[in-house]
Design a protein that fits this description.
0% strand
Amino acid sequence: MVGRSGRQAEFTSFAQSSSRYLRRTAYLLTGSQERADDLVQETLTRTYAAWHRVRPHEAIGYARRVLVNLSIDTHRRREPVPVEWSERADTHDAHARSDDADEVARMLATLTPKQRRIVVLRYFDDLTEAQTAECLGISVGTVKSACSRAFASLREQYAPITNGDQS
């Protein structure tokens, strides 16, 4: 049995090793570094409060689930499209993309919040369809269909426009 100071040390180690991952996920979910930092702080606070119940090998999954649930709750109270994404002008040249992360953030901002959560967990956090479904409390079929719709939307918006004549 690990004592109180041992559990605190375990949590401190967990928080230090997982903070970067949680911040990246939170930023991709919210589109705002300030909101992402708030989300991560609240996630770590809630994870710490439940730390006595969290198994060390499941800690990142537990924290990710808390983060996603907080993101859903936050979305219900705020605007769905992050301002700092939507107001930036796209100055990228197709042959000289210097800031892919900014472009990805703008693309994610065009998706619905549900699609954005699923795409972030599935492709940026590299979860399987089953893990994504479990994290969000939805079916695998919903994950598949939401991904399909999200990518169709992105293709429609970002695919090169052609006149139909193949020169």
